[in-house]
Amino acid sequence: MRRVQLPPLSLMTLARRQEGLVSAGQCDRAGVGAARRGRLVRDGVLEHPTRGVLDVEPGRDRRYDADHRRRRAAWLGMLALGPGAIAVGACALALHGVEGLPLDIRPEIALPGGSAGRHRADVRVRTFGRFESFRYGDRTIAALVPALVQALPELPRAHAVAVLDSVLQRGLLTDATFEVVRERVRGRRGAAGLAASWHLVDRRAESPLETFARLECVDAGVPPDDLQVEIRSSRGHLLGRGDLGWRLPHGRWLIAEIDGREFHERPDALLRDRSRQNALVSSGRVDILRFTATDLSTRAIVPSTVRTALNRYTERSNLT
User: Fold this and answer.
1) Which of 120, 134, 137 minimizes the C-alpha distance to 21?
2) What is the pLDDT at residue 278?
3) Scanning 10, 126, 129, 316, which has its CA 20 to 30 A from the CA of 299?
4) Cα Rg of the chain (Å, integer)
5) What are the tens digits of pLDDT across the range 44-71?
6) How far apart are CA 33 and CA 176, in angstroms?
7) How far apart are CA 202 and CA 277, in angstroms?
């Protein structure tokens, strides 16, 4: 039985910095020539996701790691088009760590000097002219402001708002640079579709799921009265905050909590959430609705549940 020879450690270490990908050129420089790469592909050690790029983790389950998939798309584009390729648009935003992007994005790059390049089926080559960029390891990506300008007009509305919520909430974008982005987007293809969305951006949103839920409620005619609602005890002590809040009679609140898989399902987070929710409910000032990402997969569940609850409280108030 022939022994399978693994790639050298230096190549595997490099791949870890590039979301599990390496280029053919990087393999050559690590001493893994074309013939050896062919054997490794046949043995299932490597895989070709696109021409000139190899995956050193072909068996990895990526279904539940959207951040990795998005960063991987960016690296795929840069490695496929050579050392000069610049990650742009949503790919650059993924490498900036911006939240709110679609679960999967297409590899998207620009070439040095704004030169045109031939499109490939799996990599989109863009011509944006001159824009600010900076070094990302030994590669180059669009700076945050031009990356936003490039990506926003092409993103679905909910994701565009969630991206802007994210960069503002995390302090990656100031109010002044937000206006710069808005001005530079004007006139670009797809910008008209954003015109009615800028006023929906809210730096208080703490996750894309909160943004998606809020927009669903806005569209359904039941917009929340406030975000990150502070609930205090009769002595003024802060008991906790609710993601989305609707005012009820007698100074009470209807709170919608949006539970995201990445945070709320960790055991320590579940314990803190339970303690916080118990404190809120025990105050007698709050009723809580809890939703998950699954509830957001259909646009009706969150707003219809909120509307039903609000109608019930209105009916009770009228009876008293």
Assistant:
1) 137
2) 64
3) 316
4) 24
5) 999 999 999 999 999 899 988 999 999 9
6) 51
7) 24
Domain boundaries, the chain: 9-55, 66-200, 208-319
Distance from the Cα of residue 200 to its chain's centroid: 18
- The predicted pLDDT at position 120 comes to 76
39 confidence band (pLDDT: 50, 70, 90): very high
242 to each of 147, 167, 213, how far by Cα in Å?
32, 21, 13
What is the DSSP secondary structure assignment for residue 2, as one 8-state letter?
P
Instruction: Find out whether 166 and 147 touch, Cβ atoms under 8 Å.
Output: no
Q: Which of 100, 101, 118 is nearest to 109 (CA)?
A: 118
Tokens at residue 97, please? 């760590």
Residue type, 72: R
What is the C-alpha to C-alpha distance for residues 181 and 41, in angstroms, rounded to an integer?
Answer: 44
Token pair listed for 319: 């009876």
Two structure tokens written together for 190: 């797809």
Model confidence pLDDT, tens digit, residues 215-232 = 999 999 999 999 999 988
Q: CA-CA distance, 87 to 215, in Å (whole number)? A: 29
Q: Considering only CA atoms, which of 289, 297, 148 is closest in space to residue 209?
A: 297
Q: What is the pLDDT of residues 157-208, one digit of tens each?
A: 999 999 999 999 999 999 999 999 999 999 999 999 899 899 999 999 999 9
Q: How many CB atoms lie within 10 A of CB 206?
A: 20
Residue 79 CB partners (closer than 8 Å, separation 6+): 18, 21, 22, 23, 26, 52, 53, 85
Q: How far apart (Å, rounded) are the C-alpha atoms in residues 281 and 292?
A: 19
Rounded Cα distance between 271 and 151, Å, is: 38
Side chain identity, residue 313: Y
Chain centre distance of CA 12: 27
Q: What are phi and psi of 167, to 5 degrees?
A: -70, -30
Tokens representing residue 69 in the block:
């998939």
